[in-house]
Amino acid sequence: GILSPAAAAGCPARTMTANTAGCRFADYFVISGLDVETGLEPDELSALCQFLQASKGRDGAGRVSSSADEGENYEQSPLRRTFKSKVLAHYPENVEWNPFDQDAVGMLCMPKGLSFKTQSDNRGPQFHSFIITREDGSRTYGFALTFYEEVASKQICSAMQTLYHMHNADQYDILHTSSTICINSSENISDNCSDLSTGVTKLQRFNSYDISKDTLYVSKCICLIAPLPFMHACKKVLEQLHQAVTSPKPPPLPLESYVYNILYEVPLPPAGRSLKFLGVYGPIVCQRPGTNELPLVDFPIHEMFELLGLENVLQLFTCALLEIQILLYSQHYQRLMTVAESITAILFPCQWQHVYVPILPASLLHFLDAPVPYLMGLHSNGQDDRSNLELPHEANLCFVDIDNHSIELPEDLPQFPNKLELIQEISEILMAFGIPPEGNLHCSKSTSKLKDFKESNVVCDKKNGNVAGLALSTYELLKENETMVRLQALVKRTGVSLEKLEVRVEAGSNKDFKVHCDEEELKIHQLNIQIREIFANRFTQMFADYEVFVIQPSHDKESWFNNREQMQNFDKASFLSDQPEPYLPFLSRFLETQMFASFIDNKIMCHDDDEKDQILRVFDTRVDKIRTLNVRTPTLRTSMYQKCTTIDAAEKAIKLRLAKIDHTAVHPHLLDMKIGQGKYECGFFPKLQPDVLSSSPACNKWVKRSAPAQWRRKDRQKQHTEHLHLDNDQREKYIQEARSLGTGVRQPKLSNLSPSVIAHTNWKFVEGLLKECRNKTKRMLVEKMGREAVELGHGEVTLTGVEENTLIASLCDLLERIWSHGLQVKQGKSALWSHLLHYQESKEKNEALLGTTSSPGFIHDQDRRKIDSSCMPPLKISLTRDMRHIQNIGEIKTDVGKARAWVRLSMEKKLLSRHLKQLLSDHELSKKLYKRYAFLRCDDEKEQFLYHLLSFNAVDYFCFTNAFTTIMIPYHVLVIPSKKLGGSMFTANPWICISGELGETGILQIPKSILEMTFECQNLGKLTTVLIGHDNSGLYAKWLVDSVVVRNEITGHAYRFPCGRWLGKGVDDGSLERILVGELASATLETDERHCRTPPMQQSPSMIRRFVNITPANRPKLNTGQIQESVGEAINGIVKHFHKPEKERGSLTLLLCGENGLVTALEQVFHHGFKSPRLFKSVFIWDFLEKAFVYFESLEHTEQTQEENWQTRAKKFCTFVSAINSAPRNIGKDGKFQLLVCLGARDHLLHNWIALLADCPIIAQMYEDTALIKDHTLVNSLIRVLQTLQEFNIILESSLVKGIDM
Known about the structure:
By secondary structure, the chain is of the alpha+beta class. The chain is built from 46 helices and 26 strands. The strands form six sheets. Strands 2, 3, 4, 5, 6 and 7 form a six-stranded antiparallel β-sheet that branches. The chain has a five-stranded mixed β-sheet with strand order 11-12-10-13-14, with helices on one face. The protein has a five-stranded antiparallel β-sheet with strand order 21-17-23-24-26, with no helix packed on it. The N terminus is likely disordered.
């Protein structure tokens, strides 16, 4: 059958036009190398790069390297210098769906330019691949083979000779002037180079070139540019073409025929099919995964594991998922490419969204400054030590030294979930293929390893007595192996058990299949797919129910898209609250990444199945499968590790394709060439004949075998629908734009660099950073204020600890990136801290000059009188003092850690914007530290940035207090007695005990003369209650306390604990100690205007009208409806509290004992209709409860037969009342009532007690007939409301129940 081009191949999604030619296997064939016409030009790009490096040194430390000024490094011997390479030819001239980018291809084919060698050097051909990312994020792949050819041009040889003369003369001068190297100076320099090459200096013994004796060789490169990364096939094509020109016998056909064939006659295999075509010497096979399989990856992933080792790969994988900047470093281009492509391949179903340049050409080195997430590969020349590498910001960098098997990670990198089990699962696969999990330092041998170790042979050899399909003990197999020793080390480190390792052996093995590619290639395919399936399975397991949490837009796509940045697309908090605790540090950061956001956006954009792009479709199918398997409640998450089950099916699909080739392309054939064309010399790759290669054949008959007609039709329709959906321009545009959100620059433009281009790129970065800052601040505020704040009517809502940490950590990363953009000289790992230290140093110098000695922030005694005694003097705002607080914390060891702690502290103090503004107001310092184009020197942007940070002051953060829970913190306490009744006559000794979320102080004596003190103790966290009391000594032991204020002297948070009650026997309710519930005092409000959270007996303590006890009659009279409402609201508050994820809950003490809390509400219930006694005699609710207690006790003794249920209730009630009465504490009657309510709530007894008391005859004596407690319907509804507390596990703060052992 004959196949029309369009049906022959699924055009890749990147081709926007429906041009049939977009289905070709390769778009261009390129030759690049030395252009004899233009001769030897120094490669100005690498020269520029060296110049930039040198100028960096000059700006910073005043060193000037003389050679850098000319822009070329003349210390390198000429053979080691780089010269300009040119694209000599490319065929065809242009294809419309992929315009030829001469600059990019030229740079990436030969990233280092031309190199020269002589016959004594090793000149083996080198293969590498590269990638060109277009502006819109779509990619084209390049595959290049670089080899050496003899230089035929006499001019070039003599130019090289001249360069050597100059070089040697220079070297001679240098050697003579410096006494470091002795040289036998009897030698005559100008005579002849050849004498020199036998000279004593080591320098000249190498790399010499003598035109009369040496043959000069120069590098040349042939290259295929292709739409899909069929690396193995392209490598074979190029190797066979190279072999054709180097072998003594000419190839069967002219080279043009083969190039023509690969450009115009070989189609891309359609999805799910395999294709065979002919190279110069043998068949080449490639296969493409189907639409329901993992996408195509043809790079050998196992090489990444051999180069880095499993442990390092997982760390690198975690960094990639968290979008940390990644820099790969190696002297082999292909290694850079393999690691980059492999690591991005295993991110499935996510895609790397940021700058991706696996091979960074010399001209783009300034891109390492980029303050955006990137994944880049840097070529090392093999001589430079890692320590010479000046990297702009290491605070958030993952540096991968591929050749040295090592990786440097940023601080506090979270663990990938189930890391150990994952290591074990992958180890089993690697070992089955004979690859040691800890990597293989001699990677070149790895391929031979794969060949030798065919474990299937061991199994299938029945004579050995091995039964096919039996799991071999890998352990036995590897016991003699040197690998074992290294493995055991890994095992000790990771806890993977070897005895458990099962090597997977397919009973069928590879023998059943006659596969059309060599064993080696099949092994690579198998290993690739097994590893990728395991990683894909991790995501399908972790995100099995992700769809539930996707927030579908309420309005149409168009308006959703235009407001994309304000929209939340995923319910992160709910998702995280379902996750096992150990996953949280990783997941909470991962959910914040651009790649996750884009993945979810994609999900929202492609709502219908047929619209989905392949990656999403494959992922969703797998997720559905898992969901049907786990019929158990899908929301129940466990951290049980589920191994991958899809490997066999995936492998089988590949084997089947390779066993039965679906398509065979037209064979190469003679072209219509003129006589004399197509001849060439052995050993030289010729320029080909452009006239025959410039245009595609008029009618393209691709031959297709073994397919019935109807299958072809179905196939064609299927592909047609695929195209319809994939090429939907608008959707593509949306998704592209959605991806580019938050990333200013996806891809650096590969073009000649002028200062203006560099400036423009940096401008792009500055804009990008600003946009990111805007989005981050908005996101953090929305999270902080938006959650339920509306519903609760105030800003009490807090983020989950995990989520807040994530957002703050990402803000710290952003600040580090901003501070390292355009740095002159790098010092230390944290650019921000380094800037702060410079500032601190200059400030301290100034202070020393001015001689300011008085410690700032403390106010002397004589000033104290002027200050209103009801509040503390404010803390002095000082940037350097905050730095000193951080420097005094011994637990923080690194600069990055200090910078982060300082940011957290400034956020908590609401001073971040102000501090940074102050830091940047020192323009001299900024000039000294930063280049002109740096973000911090762009005034407008800097202003806007500080303005965005200002918005954080709208909410309360506790990101410092909650992060450093074990440090010592100074607290300042001030007790404010009532202004109207000065405490001057007060004779007793007051004490106080302060509790917070993290601990309590124990009893502290307060000096009664000044009622103020400062003490240090371990971080208490947010403060919750204060227990205040006195020892009742002396003549006048009555004390009316207005409130207590406690301030954390580092963060400046002050808490106010209102009291407004008497402490003393025979006054008020006779209490000698009270529990006060506090709240954060906001700096702006006058202290008196604050609401009290400890319910006062009267309206306001500052308006006490009488010296008598304050009677309940002073309370505002509420009707029964209002009372019911306040009970309802109090209970509601508690219910809501428990419905929040644990990390988000506020203080339960406030909901029980605070203003509008449960205790106050029940007080109102019992006060309603309470008979008002004679004047000057107060009756408290506790008096009523004690009478009831006596009544119940008496009943017990008379043994009247009540039902059993009633008896147990009464018993319980009596036990609690007597326990409270006999407690060793001096709490008054209202304090006892509060205690009873709290204990009753804790033990779920309140509703029983209300029922009990409502039936008690004592009520008749003490309540009016209209009292709420006498109204049966009201009491019943009250009981029902209180019953809702039964499902909650109420844990009381220890300060509430001190001394009660129940």
